[in-house]
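Annex B. Sample input.
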Amino acid sequence: MSALPDLDSLTLTDLKALVPPLLAELRALTDVVAAQREEIARLKGLKGPPSIKPPVKPSGMESATKPKPAGGGGKRRGRGRQRIAVAAIEDRVVPAEAPAGSRFKGYETYLIQDLVVRPVAIRFQRERWLTPDGRTIVAPLPAGIDGHFGPELRRFVLMQYHQGQVTMPRLVAMLGAMGIAVSKRQLVRLLIGDQGRFLNEARDVLRTGLSSAAWVTVDDTGARHKAANGYCTHIGNDHFGWFGTTGSKSRLNFLDLLRAGHGDYVINAEALAYMRDRSLAGPVIRLLAGHADKVFADEGAWRAHLDRLGIAAMTVTPDPVRIATEGALWGSVKAHGMIANTVIVSDDAGQFKVGRHALCWVHAERLIHKLDTFTDKHRAAQQRMRSLVWWFYADLKVYQAEPTAARKAALRARFDRIFKRRTGFATLDRLLQRLHANKAELLMVLDRPEIPLHTNGSENDIRSQVTRRKISAGTRSDQGRDCRDAFLGIAKTCAKLGIAFWDYLGDRFKIEGSRDVPYLPEIIAKRAAPA
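Annex B, continued. Sample output.
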């Protein structure tokens, strides 16, 4: 297109004459863009409109680098013998019609499993006595009876809703079809009413887990609460799982969750070290360190302290109130004995970068995997780098099994050779520089071989929350939100500890014949204790 003349010097007629050729050129450019989009879609093998970004398929790095079973041969393993270990076996003799003179040769066993579900309504006739001194004595209800719905029904409702992911309307319809007269309001009370002991146990699971774990993985996902978008954070490892839903996913929020229910703010050596690492101004740190008050009961007391010191009125970067508050939260976490030597493994989300921090290799490789490539040279460079990362990842697994100083040094040097490469693909080269800058967190496994190389555990656990989000509109009360998080965490913890959630609920509701299930934090502490 030729250079435009000075528009201010043109008449209205001259300006109108310029419009048709400009519109024609705009249409031509639009056609070129559309053709380029179609060509890009064809080269990438997309289905559907090119403007819609396709989902990135899993890279397969983790499964591909798992050691192959010995004696391979590629033969599929059978299911093996199925054992009935939970239900008590009832023997029933089925007689046969044998002709006279037949000889009895014993029995041929045939085992079936069945389930008996039927409504039961029990009217307790409680004796009432009037004592000589005028007092009335009423016989107490049997153990486990709390309200007008029995413990078996309460166990069934909690099992279906939290582990079975059944929605409330469907659960009401299911119970009604079985002959149980229960309204939606009554069902809500069964799910969230008087559940303080379960909330306390879930909180203690987190406290014990954070104080005894060598490592935890973390992840978050969206969650609806009170008709607003929020975030559900998962914290866990091989022994426990815990969920917390809040309205934010900031670092302040994550540090608050790490306090595991404690509400205090503490200024100690760990808090001051955190503030220095986050570049808080020296005079501000000296104000906090030199003051006699070091422990503050709640947020109100802490904010008032910042106001008295004049920190809240400062308008500098970084924000001194935010950094100081993060430090005081970290001080509280440390003061209560949590995250003492724990490595936090995350997917590189900024809010999780506290304490000893390691990065997930699967997420790091995924960044290379999902790069957009437009030429054969770009695709070849991408595949070459993915092959090098897969190979390195497999060798990290070998190191975890048998860590040695020589392997440690060799892997560090090899990491530099891989991620300092320059491929000629500018986008890939910038990504490699970024990954190399995360060397200390990606290679944390060399110093702590027991930690996982990925956050798959958290991603698998948090899928239950994703499922709940898809089938439910979210929670409407804080009590409902807390109960949903607590029971989901308890169910995941039971699964990790080899305990059936059904048995756990049976024990907690004092149902006759249920298996004894100890307090979950006690089991976690024993599992985490060194042998």
